[in-house]
Predict the 3D structure of the following.
Amino acid sequence: MARPPTSRDLARLAGVSQATVSRVLTNNPKVNPETRARVLQVLKDANYTPNALARAMKTGRTDTIGVFMTRVTSPFHAELLDEIGRVLSSTGLHMILWNIEHDPEETVAEVLHQRLVDGFVLTSATYDSKLHTMALASGTPTVLLHRGIDELECDQVVGDNWQGAYDAGKYLVDHGHTDIGLVTLVHTGNTSRDRDLGFRAALADAGVKIKPSNVVSVGVPHADGHAAAEKLLSRKKPPTAIYTVTDLLAFGILDGARAVGARVPDDVWVIGFDNTEMAAWESFDLTSVDQPTHAIVETGVNLLRQRIADPDRPTETVTLPCPLAIRGSTANRH
Amino acid sequence: MARPPTSRDLARLAGVSQATVSRVLTNNPKVNPETRARVLQVLKDANYTPNALARAMKTGRTDTIGVFMTRVTSPFHAELLDEIGRVLSSTGLHMILWNIEHDPEETVAEVLHQRLVDGFVLTSATYDSKLHTMALASGTPTVLLHRGIDELECDQVVGDNWQGAYDAGKYLVDHGHTDIGLVTLVHTGNTSRDRDLGFRAALADAGVKIKPSNVVSVGVPHADGHAAAEKLLSRKKPPTAIYTVTDLLAFGILDGARAVGARVPDDVWVIGFDNTEMAAWESFDLTSVDQPTHAIVETGVNLLRQRIADPDRPTETVTLPCPLAIRGSTANRH
């Protein structure tokens, strides 16, 4: 099969100008009915699919959603991306993915003004990023998934990170732990902040103090969880439990525990956050706070479609529960 | 900031028709010089970024590459996707991602004719898929990365899967293994085929027979590697080494070994294929054949850019070496 016919080829076949073909394609009333009929017959014979660009110019719709994301190699983000693709596709929408780790904000600024997409999904909103401000200012329908921004006038669907973290803290205290490690991220987004503050609140409510030396602030990678565990567990009197704010860090903590010969859960309990598929693998068998990824994405895409259909509807923030999934990295299953 | 100005707003500001604004934006010579100057001044005052769609209509370029991929939640595919995003971005190109697990071929057929992109990257070519045939027939510049199709007239960049698998087999034989398990995928692509055949060739060359009962054919998920290991290692006389064709299956095999109480490497050696970042984690410490992901992507994107610039240049197939990365899942490090 050759390259599909262009409007130039079709014009030649119909014996009209390219401009006339364009007018037919855009339903311009200036074309006389006989000419229109002839052009349409040629289009039909050629099995012509109108160029998406031409169609988008005409309808103002691209049926494409732009997704901004970071760190697709993190297991949770890969699952989130997969789920976004699945849900968009099931509603007949395509996805343009921008990895904002690689595409800096200047590029994003250009993208926002190009209107290649009908709407935006932002999964990595941070307080100090201009991305959500720029997205909203561009007038493009936008939804924040997974990460939200407090009080922002924008549709948002997030997990109840604070309550999930609180429940994890309460679970440790209820099972007698008083010397507890907290491996936390610098708070650039609401997820890491609430996963930290909720956990601290549970301990405070139970009258359990966290020693300052038990709090380790780290970066995102597995290696950082590993180093934090080595630091906490090499002490003369190490903590009896460690909670952290992502599964990826928890996997690093489990590996760090292995590296210093600490047994999980005999010597130390470990709890992560995300409940990725990998958390259930024997290698980790990780107790983790569950992010309801499917529900977050489905609810969010639904809100975005409503916003595209009606740009003036009031914004909504939906918060979904994050229950604790208990596994072998904490010894007590009740 | 409000929604950016449309061509309608600009036409009103310049006191001309929308059609005239369009003619100025597309450098149509029919606009008289004074009108053109007035419109350009209005555009400048409004700080107007021409709509990407309009620009694409004019230049025929979208600066966007369409990527077709499956299984972004598999660790290797996530790394591959991340690398493709990084390399495209570093050359000023955007990425549209289609997950062909979710977007069936009918959708792909439509996409191919829409010309939303300047080129395609296919990472999951299989013999029985029509995708590469459709991509080439559409006349859109296309490169196959990671998975290739023998003898196809298309730019392709692949790892030397056969030789990498051969080296893994030779390494096991050289270290005295004669009772060896092979956990293999149904061959729908050149990767799983060559990773199977190369391994068998090494054993055959060394005069080592693979017992039919030591060959287990599985699907892609971790759970399938897990089940295969349980099957092989629950025998009265289990194999002393297991080789498999992806890291994800190898992680499943390590977890299956744990589940039946087999120690790695004391009771059984395990080798995977991909050398993902996770292979280096203590949980796995997996000996694995390295896929040169960065070099595959960089070489492939470079070929694609050359093809976009010169559609008639001869096609190239580049095959890159896949050396064995030796770790603790095989006891002998020399």
